Amino acid sequence: MVSCGETIVTRKIFLGPNETRLLFGLEKVGKTVFTLSDAARILGSSKTAAKVIIYRLKCKGRIVTAQRGKYVLAPARAGVEGHWSENPFLIVSHIINEYYVGFWTAMSHWGMTEQIPITIFVAAAKRKRPVRYGGQTFRFVTLSKRKFFGFTKERIDSRTFNISTKEKTIVDGLVFPQHCGGMSEVTKAIWNSRKELDWNSLLAMAKRMSVDAALRRLGYLLHLLGLEPEMGRSVAKLEWRGLRFLDPTAPKKALSYSRDYGLILNVSDTKLTSWRGT
Q1: Strand, helix or coil at 71?
Q2: Rg, the chain, Cα only
Q3: Beta bridge partner(s), residue 99
Q4: What is the mean pLDDT of residues 267-273?
Q5: Which of 81, 130, 216, 220 is least buried, going by the fewest C-beta atoms within 10 A?
Q6: Strand partners, 116
Q7: How far apart are CA 104 and CA 108, in angstroms?
Q8: Alpha helices, DSSP H only, in the chain?
Q9: Element (H, E) at 122
Q10: Are strands 263-265 and 244-245 parallel, antiparallel or unpaired?
């Protein structure tokens, strides 16, 4: 017996002629993600009739809802019981047009952290509500046009998705550490990727963001980690107006101050580098 709920348990799955027509029709035209209109067109039916077929296929584990009005096909290679889900990175472009996978998710992808965040963080040019798919949540962080840059294409099989470059991943972390697991994770990401980063590009991107706190934090963390001393000194020579918190995700309580970088040190160096162990 097939049950259509949060958990689908099936032993044998029998597909009706219209269900088979839709599945094979979608695979024939290469539609991994499709809409109700796509289904109605393939079936040659009304949207109401297509909705019934989609519902039946969802119950049988052959289709998953990506978001309202959009569905993901579990292809024939998923096997008899349809235990399959599309790679979440390949889903994003079907949910929103202007995007790139970023922040903590990009750090994980580039090997900057051993953490694997459950949430998929996505930079978006327009506001978008969170979307659930395959047991994961897509969280969209809206960026202004000025900040929406610095991404590249990565490939999975024969398809591609947008993701922030290693340098932009660090810069986004300096501006938005709350979407990266905090400043300690950003510090770790800088250290882990130190041999792979284009430092001149990273500095240029930090300046392009027009968020002086990013430059201040970059200079301080370079000094803390003993990396790129000339760059750190060049940042320290800049003139700062007012003070910024080193970690906006930490309590707004000053432990100390950095005159060189115009920072309120509200998190200790020990905590920033706690990932190093003892």
Answers
A1: strand
A2: 23
A3: 124
A4: 96
A5: 130
A6: none
A7: 6
A8: 17-28, 36-43, 47-59, 88-95, 103-109, 166-175, 183-192, 199-208, 212-225, 229-236, 269-272
A9: strand 120-124
A10: parallel
Residues 6+ apart with CB under 8 A from 134: 64, 85, 86, 88
Amino acid letter for position 265: L
Q: Domain 17-86 adopts which CATH fold? A: Arc Repressor Mutant, subunit A (1.10.10)
Contact 221, 187 (CB under 8 A): yes
Cα separation, 273 vs 101, in Å, equals 26
Task: Classify strands 136-142 and 120-124 as parallel, antiparallel or unpaired.
Answer: parallel
Tokens linked to 215: 């430059």
**Residue 15 confidence (pLDDT) above 80:** no
Instruction: Give the pair of three-digit tokens for residue 65.
Output: 């809802």
For the segment 73-84, the average pLDDT, to the nearest whole number, is 47
The pTM of this model reads 0.77
Section 121-125 average pLDDT: 96
224-240 burial, b at 16+ Cβ within 10 Å, e below that, comes to bbeebeebbeebbeeeb
List the structure tokens of 4. Answer: 């259509």
CB 164 within 8 A of CB 150: yes
The HSE-up count of residue 269 (CA atoms within 13 Å, CB side) is 10
pLDDT for res 224: 97
Q: Is the dihedral of CA 224, 228, 233, 238 positive or negative?
A: negative
Cα–Cα distances in angstroms (integers) from residue 95 to residues 14, 65, 140, 269, in the given order: 30, 11, 11, 40
pLDDT of residue 13: 58
The count of residues in the chain is 278
Helix (H) or strand (E) holding 137: strand 136-142
Residues forming CATH 1.10.10.10 domain(s) in the chain = 17-86
Q: Is the dihedral of CA 250, 256, 259, 260 positive or negative?
A: negative
